[in-house]
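Human: If only I could read backbone structure tokens as easily as an amino acid sequence. Underneath my words sits a plain record pairing an amino acid chain with its backbone structure tokens. Take your time, and here it is.
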Amino acid sequence: MMLCFLVAVICALDRVAMSVAIVPMSGEFGYSDTTKGLIASAFSWGYMAFMIPAGVLGTFVNPKVVMGLGVLLWSIAQMASPHAAVLGLPTLLACRFAMGMSEAVTIPTIQEIVSQWVPQDQRTRWLALIISGLQAGTVLAYVASPTIITRFTWHGVFLIYGAMGLLWLMLWVPLAKDTPLRQLSTSKAAAAIAMAEVAAVAPATGDEQGLNQLAVGVAGAIDSLKAVPWHDFCTDKNIWAIAGAHMAHNWGLYVMLAWLPTYFNQEFGLTLSESSSASVLPWVVGAFVGNGAGWLADYLINSNTMTATSVRRLFQTVALVGPAVCMYLLSGLERASTGGQFGTQAALQASESAQHLFVAAVAFGSCSSVGFASASMLFTSFCQTNVMTCSSQDLKSKYTSIIYGLTSAVSVVTGSVGTYLTGVLLDETHSWASAFKVTAVVYLIGAAWYGSTYKAQARLED
């Protein structure tokens, strides 16, 4: 589990690096806000393109191999980014797209590992802990990147962070083990997958073993995919409720991840180091709130104080309505500023107010780790007229990462649109108010969607 936490840290570190590096890069290459939004969204489009395949791989292929290959590929793409930027914008966009595709395996594979290794009554807190690694990586990127850029230029950010992924692989390959043996079916395809998993329980002895496991797993996966109830997944209202919350969450999250340092730099005239420092606290607080929410949710469910469905709806509502209020207040904060003059007492106060509102927004949003993120794991049965009903154990063990992959695919599209649209709005209006208002509306739509449609009652394992 700790290796999963570390890979979440590195995943966020590699992704957020661009939001800091884009400030000096835009000065060097003359990027407009629309272009900056396009660069940020290229990662997300790559992430979306491989989200469903990543969920399938996480379900049917040795998760150790899937995670290892993903980290290897995205680390290479990260280290290649400086050279790609020098070659031109299309090359950089292609590099960021490839990096997004590679990082897409992370969360579905973690979902699969947690669903297999962690007891039911502890899953929410462990998932919250691992997800908090994303916030920890974000904080690390904001803290370390300005220093690295000062000493090694913006090129150093991509080279150093990419190298960290390769160092993580040196721990993952010898130490990581596959999930416990899963009982999928008696078919030959399932037997082949089971053989691959049993072989993977022992520490890997080399690259050849991993490639053999991947080949066996992929071959079995092709046949096993026929048994996946795709129609049920795509038509079930509860899964679309999860997707709706995920979409709204990603819109706001992607906008903040991509634009926070730029916002403080443009709106308040903060330096790169000051902008990054102002962007740190929200993610620190978010990590603590997310973990605390996980423990509280487990207590409420295990003590029978609230049903699992009620807990998911409560925390997800907080996770969407809270940030919506913060975004609306931020849009008004700009109107109360000092007309773009930096360094005045009013501007400093406005900057501090903005930091506090972003802290609150991320803290509220972190409750999503107990909302849609856990709901996608704990959603264990869906009953449609004249269609099959999956048992809780069957769905948990086989389809957890596929469900997350499906909801993530549509939500990443939404987040990508939000990132790009923010850049367009900034170029057209030269104001942050419209971007914040649009984000607030998206949050509220997601809250209404999830609250009105998510009605599934989780069936806990015996």
About this structure: The chain has one domain: 2-180+228-453. Confidence is low (pLDDT under 50) at residues 181-206, 376-397, 456-462. The longest helix spans residues 123-175. The chain is about 80% helix and 0% strand.
